[in-house]
Amino acid sequence: MKALVTGGAGFIGSHLTQRLLKDGHNVAVIDNLSTGSLNNIESFKGHSCFEFVSGDIRNTELIGPLVEHCDVIFHLAAAVGVRLIAEDPVHTIETNIGGTEIVLDIANKFGRKILIASSSEVYGKSESVPFCEEDDIVLGSTSMPRWAYACSKAIDEFLGLAFYQQYGLGVVIGRFFNTIGPRQTGQYGMVVPRFVQMALKDEPVLIYGSGKQTRCFCYVADVVEAIVGLMNSDHAAGKVYNIGSTEEISIEELADKIIEMTGSKSQKQFVPYEVAYGRPIEDMMRRVPNLERIKETTGWEFGTNLDEILQVIIESFKRNSRSAD
Q1: Is the CB of residue 180 less than 8 Å from the CB of residue 241?
Q2: Are 244 and 216 in contact (CB under 8 A)?
Q3: Please, what is the angle between helix 220-232 and helix 11-22, to 10°?
Q4: Residue 274's pLDDT is what?
């Protein structure tokens, strides 16, 4: 099988690419490196079954031949991260909606099965926890840039499902819930790498908002397993699937845990959203997935607990720090 991974030099994309190569598949990656990094794919750049194309998914001259010569598409390319969304909302909307539209159109032309990476942000301010795939979405005002990202991913889902319904294209939607692991950067607002880096330097651990908001963090290897399982299933097309963990923790508790696990001297410091992002940011207090649908379809369940994941991440940052010295 030859797979095309858009955004394959990113955090999740690089782990997926590594898994596909390990399974013996040929993999082509396209990435404009806006949030991805060549360092993420360094270990397999010389692999005989790997091809990297530097470019934007909206470039039809680049993406067209890649789709034509692949068997399946994993569409992970997107503008992600609360900070990036707040600072560059135009880029977010254009990349997420425009890019997905182009990839879907070309996938349909050649009849290629495609998985579209969506986000739990789609649920917006809904308080119907745990979130089920068929739940209503509750978005905030259009004056809040955060909801532009949620809306852009919802449009991606609408587009994908429309291609399935109208043309019979094999489209699978995965809604990711707070994926974490090695190679993730805190540059665009991701909380775990930010906290770990601060704690390892004995710097104040900056908690945005009250810290009472809760999240469920899932290990990237478990998420990759879910993605592969969905694409291998004959019954997944035309549906949306939550992918994540149900192990819930508050952001303040997460900070405490990371400080303890790193043996850090760091103190917690609470920062209002307006200060952190330079503008008001609405947040949701809980985000927990219902995982019944994906379990019924593929048998998938997350298998790595938070302490185990954090230990891997901490050790990864320590190794990288030693290598940089």
Answers
A1: no
A2: yes
A3: 60
A4: 87
* Cα–Cα distance for residue pair 79/34, rounded to 1 Å: 8
Q: Is the pLDDT of residue 240 over 70?
A: yes
- The CB density around residue 89, as the number of other CB atoms within 10 Å, is 18
What's the rounded Cα separation, in Å, for the pair 59 and 303? 38
Residue type, 318: K
Q: How far apart are alpha carbons 268 and 216 in whole angstroms?
A: 21
Q: Mind spelling out the 3-state secondary structure of 219-279? A: EHHHHHHHHHHHHHCCCCCCCEEEECCCCEEEHHHHHHHHHHHHCCCCCEEEECHHHHHCC
Strand bridging mode 113-119 / 171-176: parallel
Q: Of the residues 149, 164, 188, 208, which is catalytic? A: 149
Find all residues with CB under 8 Å of 25, minimum gap 6, and list them. Answer: 1, 2, 3, 49
DSSP string, 89-117: HHHHHIIIIIHHHHHHHHHHHHT-EEEEE
- 149 included as an active-site residue: yes
Cα–Cα distance, 255 to 274 (Å, whole number): 20
Radius of gyration of the chain (CA): 19
55-105 tens-digit pLDDT: 999 999 999 999 999 999 999 998 776 666 667 778 778 888 999 999 999
Is pLDDT above 90 for 322? no
Q: Where are the alpha helices (DSSP H) in the chain?
A: 11-22, 60-68, 82-87, 89-93, 99-110, 146-167, 191-200, 220-232, 251-262, 273-277, 292-298, 306-324
